[in-house]
Amino acid sequence: MTFVAQSQRDPNGNYIFSSRPRPVETRSKFREPPPDQSPYGNIMYDRRVVRGNTYAQHIIPTPAQPDPVEVQRQQENRRRAIARKRAREELRTRSAEALQGRKHIDVQTENYLEELGDIIVATDIECQTDAFLDRAASPLFIPAKSGKDVETQIEEGELFDFDREVQPVLEVLVGKTMEQSLLEVMEEEELACLRAQQRAFEELRNNELAEVLRLQEQERRHREEKERRIAQQKEVLKEEKEIAEKIAARAYTKQFFSDLLLTVFTSLRSHGYFYDPVEKDIETNFLPWLMVEVNNSLERRYTARNLLDNIIHDVVHKRLEMCRETQSK
User: Fold this and answer.
1) Does the predicted TM-score (pTM) go above 0.85?
2) Contact 6, 18 (CB under 8 A)
């Protein structure tokens, strides 16, 4: 039966899903058997039967690799479920936010109010049952007797003659013992031969190993001697190079200092590093003292001259005034 799903929106803005009614299908309570097998034939198709070795104490099961397509499908279903849950939470009608200073509380909106409490009323009820009776033991099964009982008289020596019957057994035992003994002797000889070959092989191998060690030691000595000779030759070449460099530096130094010595002494003498002690004493001590004394003497002379000029000027000025007064009188 096919049906058409309809999706519409109610006045509040929520989506409503509705579909046409359909009858409930009648299904069997049990699983249907395979088409090519009878339901009571082969137990290999029964999933309750364990197939293979059930002794797996030390076997570590290997986790099955997940199918990428199945993992991707599960992730997609999980994302869709989260999206649907988020959409339902967004479309759910909620109360308006409480005003400032107030808060929402849960209240009962039923017609008949009832007291709400955290204590749950509990009542203890007891019931005494009869003890279980022991099951009686099952009787031993004895099959019913059938047929007729008959008997036969057997004289001594009719069924078994020990001397005659024991010969094949003894032959087999003796033959097997001899064969086993021969096999053990041959095995011991083979083992002795193998041990001899092993000893010979070990001796040969030890000799070869000793020869290899001798050759390796000889090669090591040759290599060390070669490295030592190379190091000595490098050291000799290095010393020769250093000697040649020292000789060249000494020759260059002699050539350079032949003209440098006179120039250095001249420069040092011109800068005052080489001087006459008397001349140096005169320049540093006597001449400054002499200049100071000359300056002082000249200053006193200048002072005396200025004083004399002032006196002469005053005397001349007074005489000029006296002359003018005399002429005026």
Assistant:
1) no
2) yes
